[in-house]
Amino acid sequence: MATPVVAGATCSLDDYLAMPDYSMDDRIAAAREALGETTVLLGHHYQRDEVVRFADFTGDSYKLSKIAAETPAKYIVFCGVHFMAESADVLGRDDQQVILPDMNAGCSMADMAEISQVEACWETLVRAGLGETRVMPLTYMNSTAAIKAFCGERGGLVCTSSNARKAFEWAFARAEKILFLPDQHLGRNTAFAMGIGLDEMVVFDPWQIGGGVTAEKLRVAKVILWKGHCSVHQRFLPEHVDHVRAKYPGIRVVVHPECRWEVCQKADALGSTERIVAEVEQAREGTMFAIGTEIHLVNRLAKEYAPKGKRVITLDDTGCLCTTMYRISPGHLAWALENLVQGQVVNRIEVEEDVKHWARVALDRMLEIRG
Ligand code: 13P
Ligand code: SF4
Fold this sequence. Notes:
Strand content: 15-25%
Order of helices and strands: HHEHEHEHEHEHEHEHEHEHEHEHEHEHEH
CATH superfamily of the largest domain: NadA-like
Oligomer: single chain
Low-confidence stretches: 1-9
CATH architecture of the largest domain: 3-Layer(aba) Sandwich
Bound molecules: 1,3-dihydroxyacetonephosphate, iron/sulfur cluster
Largest sheet: 5 strands, mixed
Structural class: alpha/beta
C-alpha cells in the first residue's frame, strides 16, 4: 500500500500517482480553496470528468485563450495540452505563471510541424517566387509557440477551429495565398466552405524534397496545406456517417473540423468543441446526435443531456481518446495545486522571450478578429 500523503506536504509526484484518483478529490478542493483568487483553473472540453469538474472555466481553445488573456489570477493552471498552456503564457502578464499539471500532455498534431521544417518550407516557397507579399502563413492554435512566432513575424496570425474562416478572410484581404499549418483537414474544410476548390489546394509534405509538390503547383495553388492531422479525428470515416444514418434515421451528425473533408461533407454541422456543446444544448428535446470528436466530451454530453431527452452517441463506436489530454490525472492536479499552496510552482510553462514577442503579435491578431 502506498504511503499516505499529508495534504499540503511537498512530496514527490510518484506518491500522488500511487494513490487512487478518488482520494484526490478532497485534496484538490481544499487546495483550490486555499489558493482562492490567486489561481484560475482552466479545463479543455476533452479533459476527463474527474479533472474538468474542478475547472473554474471550461471551453474550446479560443475561449480558454481569451480567458487566459483577461484573468487577474497570478497562477493559471491549464488542464489541457502543451500548446494551450504556451499560448496562455504568451498572452498573460509578466507577473503571471502558467502551470501544466503533466508536462507529457502534448498534442501529436502540433508535433507534426517543427520550426526547422516550416522554415525549410518557406525557403521552398521563396524559391518558387512566393515571398511574404504573396503568401500569408496562418497557423492553427495547435502548434508550438515558435510556429506562431514564425507567422506573426511574417504578417500572419493564429486561428482556432472557431474562427478559422474569419482568419482566412483576414489573410486573403492581405495576400494572394495562404500557407496553412499544421492541420490539413481544418485548412481544407475552411477553404472549401469559402468556395475554394480542392484543385486550388496543394498539400506540402515536410518529409519529402520540396514538399513533394512542384514549384508550378505551388504557384497556382490558393491554399498550401501542411501535411499534418489529428490522429483522434482522422479516424472518423465517411462510412461511419453512412452507418449511423442508416441505423438511426433522422440523426444529426455533428463533427469537429479536424475530421477529414469527406466526413465533414456528409455531416449536418461542424464546429469547435464549444460549438458542439452549443449544438446539443440548443437542440429540441428528442434530438439524437452522433458526434465526431474526442470521446470524453461525447460521453459527458451523453450523460448530461440524457435526462433532458436528448440522445448523444459517438460517430464511431471504437471511441477516440486523446491520450495526451488524458495524461492529466487527479493526482497530477493535486500535486500541482498542493505545491502552489506551499509556494512552489511546478511544471511551469515559460515561452522564451524572443519567441514570445512575435507569437503574441500572431495571437493578438487572432483575438482582434474574434470568433
Ligand atoms: P477546440 O478549439 O475546438 O477546442 O479544439 C482543440 C483541439 O485540440 C481539438 O482537437
Ligand atoms: Fe491534439 Fe488531436 Fe488531442 Fe486535439 S484531439 S489535442 S488535435 S491530438
